[in-house]
């Protein structure tokens, strides 16, 4: 009898979209697959800001535990939610081809507030990376915490007296809820691995590793590895305003990374173009350069503030 591959997923519409994408890919290869839904701490507490509840792994821990306890065979994550250090016994089995990477501004009526330097706009986001980059560009604006799944956040934006909120483009487009009143923020550098989906399994489960391996997209896996190396070397996580984006262009890698203070007043940015042969080290080297230029003081200040 063929083994049924059990895919663990959160219950949100976006998480289920991601898990079903993996399910469909595995079924196309002839595997029998079922979904197992599991609540995460991040889904249960929708009030406390992420940076106050130990955000590292908050959306992945419950699935990791289920995986290690053999309740599921595979877990599917938004890659940007995954800590750079995976738990012992769990490995990255595949990274799917990347979707949209940029952030998206969803506004309520118009974007006129962006043109008025004296107007105090009310902007909502749960991401301190987005908050820091926004305040660097619009220091007069007021930021508000916005938690919950995509649909919950869209509804809260509609209900609150806010001008706009910031979302990941991939999250809205994948489930078909991107409003017409939205625009991509080309100037905002995304989170490391934003738009990518990671599939993990137990490191000793050779049969599952073999089944998942064909799903791996090599270019996406390389670029997200570079971004996560940058993040890890800066010793950051979701509680640190760190951005990174790597793309492959022929035989070269183009990398951009940045580190902001929490209020956006201090900023370190870096850009590199390297041949593919040098790609494995570029994220680490870029982070080390930022630390040497004074970025270590920003990291220390953020840690002291927490």
From TrEMBL:
Protein name: Hydroxymethylbilane synthase
Subunit structure, as described in the record: Monomer.
Record organism: Chitinophaga caeni
Single GO BP term: heme biosynthetic process
EC number from the UniProt entry: 2.5.1.61
PROSITE patterns in the cross-refs: PORPHOBILINOGEN_DEAM (PS00533)
Protein role: Tetrapolymerization of the monopyrrole PBG into the hydroxymethylbilane pre-uroporphyrinogen in several discrete steps.
Residues making up the signal peptide according to the UniProt record: none
Domain Porphobilinogen deaminase C-terminal: 222-291
Lineage of the species this protein comes from: Bacteria, Pseudomonadati, Bacteroidota, Chitinophagia, Chitinophagales
Cited InterPro entries: HemC (IPR000860), Porphobilin_deaminase_cofac_BS (IPR022419), Porphobilin_deaminase_N (IPR022417), Porphobilinogen_deaminase_C (IPR022418), Porphobilinogen_deaminase_C_sf (IPR036803)
Porphobilinogen deaminase N-terminal domain location: 5-209
Matches recorded under CDD domains: PBP2_PBGD_2 (cd13647)
Pathway(s) the chain acts in: Porphyrin-containing compound metabolism; protoporphyrin-IX biosynthesis; coproporphyrinogen-III from 5-aminolevulinate: step 2/4
MF annotations from Gene Ontology: hydroxymethylbilane synthase activity
Keyword terms of this UniProt record: Porphyrin biosynthesis, Transferase
Family: Belongs to the HMBS family.
Catalytic activity: 4 porphobilinogen + H2O = hydroxymethylbilane + 4 NH4(+)
Annotated Gene Ontology cellular component terms: cytoplasm
Cofactor(s) it depends on: dipyrromethane
Uppermost EC category: transferase
